[in-house]
Write a structure and sequence with these properties.
about 0% strand; about 100 residues
């Protein structure tokens, strides 16, 4: 073995001497970007909720099944689609922010 394989083998065999860079500043910056994305998504989602509360007479706020099965053809599924985007972004954020 040579190169990275040799170094990895030695670090695996003697973990007390293993040193790897954590990229702390880049990781924190990435988390901050994810937070900013989530803040924007949350803001847009709340505005869409308010519009839908008027247009749908609060139906989506009270009936999750109606929200989830909203009609794609007339665009009333926008709130559900945004909820799914937020879900994915929250999952990504949670993985980094442990």
């Amino acid at each position: 073995m040579k190169g990275y394989a040799k170094i990895a083998s030695l670090m695996g065999k003697y973990p007390e001497v293993a040193m790897v860079r954590q990229f702390g500043a880049l990781n924190v910056q990435n988390i901050l970007y994810l937070q900013a994305e989530l803040v924007t998504l949350e803001h847009d989602f709340r505005k869409l909720e308010a519009v839908n509360d008027v247009q749908q007479e609060g139906h989506f706020s009270l009936d999750w099944d109606a929200l989830m099965s909203a009609d794609k053809d007339d665009g009333s599924d926008a709130q559900w689609n945004m909820a799914l985007r937020i879900r994915a972004k929250l999952k990504e954020y949670s993985e980094y922010n442990r």
